[in-house]
Write a structure and sequence with these properties.
Length: 285
């Protein structure tokens, strides 16, 4: 089955691996361009490009989805587009190219948590603690996370108990595996005409916002549960930090919620190496 996969990050790679396990490898991958990253500003390839090279799959890295990309995709007969954490808005005319449209793997139970930060937002809201996290396979339209639903699954349906994540990265991996498996089950049924798309309950939609580095700032006087949720949601990025009495940034690298208290275990003071929090406090005295 000839299909194109749009994706960029580690979430996308896990979805690709699950599709590959099911015997469904894309004919082409569209991913982000290489970017300069880190202190040395080294040119770094996105995870999906590395996966494509390793798997001998053709790939494109367009700066933008312009006419040249459109006509390139249109020149080959593809049955389907699959999108998982691509990171760019795909214009409607692209979605209309394949005969069976474009399917998106979204890491929430739509219409809840539409937008750019569903993973972080679910942790901040305590959805994982309530067992209310999952994935949606939806047919894409011109609006963000708005299209009809083909399949949904709660993470709790495949876990023996409520899934309590320690970090956003852990939730991402769990939902990527679940989403890839659900997608592999859904695609054959969709192509065979066995699925009737279900319109989302748009009046129940909730929306997330783009996460910035500033979101990682916490006050040690805030509610303990709120601070711990922020720590889990923003680890590893943008990370959680506070400012000490000398207005120096202190990054929290290890913490826990113990007996209703937010317990900091390790920190990285600005310009220094990681230390135990008790040692940091001792030096600050």
């Amino acid at each position: 089955m000839q299909y194109v996969f749009f994706g960029t990050d580690n979430f996308s790679v896990i979805v690709l691996e699950e599709l590959k396990k099911a015997g469904s490898v894309p004919a082409l991958v569209v991913t982000a361009t290489d970017k300069k990253m880190g202190r040395g500003m080294r040119l770094t390839s996105p995870p999906v490009k590395l996966w494509a090279q390793k798997s001998a799959v053709q790939f494109l890295q367009p700066q933008k989805l312009d006419d040249s990309v459109y006509y390139s995709l249109q020149s080959t007969v593809y049955k389907l587009f699959v999108v998982a954490s691509y990171g760019k808005i795909i214009p409607k005319r692209f979605l209309d190219i394949p005969a069976h449209g474009a399917l998106n793997v979204h890491p929430s139970l739509l219409p809840l948590y539409r937008g750019p930060s569903p993973l972080e937002s679910q942790i901040l809201d305590g959805a994982d603690e309530r067992g209310e996290v999952g994935v949606t396979i939806m047919q894409m339209d011109e609006e963000m996370d708005h299209g009809p639903i083909l399949a949904q699954q709660e993470l709790g349906q495949v876990q023996s108990s409520k899934f309590k994540v320690q970090s956003c990265a852990e939730l991402q991996d769990a939902l990527a595996h679940l989403g890839g498996q659900l997608l592999a089950e859904t695609i054959p049924k969709w192509l065979a005409g066995e699925i009737t798309p279900r319109e989302q309950e748009h009046e129940k939609a909730t929306y997330t916002e783009k996460i910035t580095k500033a979101d990682g700032l916490i006050s040690l006087d805030d509610d303990a549960e709120k601070n711990y949720r922020k720590f889990r949601a923003f680890t590893p990025w943008p990370s959680v930090y506070f400012f000490d009495e000398k207005n120096r940034r202190v990054k929290i690298t290890d913490a826990a919620l113990e007996e209703g208290k937010f317990v900091i275990k390790k920190v990285i003071p600005e310009g220094k190496k990681e230390v135990r929090y008790e040692d940091f406090l001792r030096c600050a005295e």
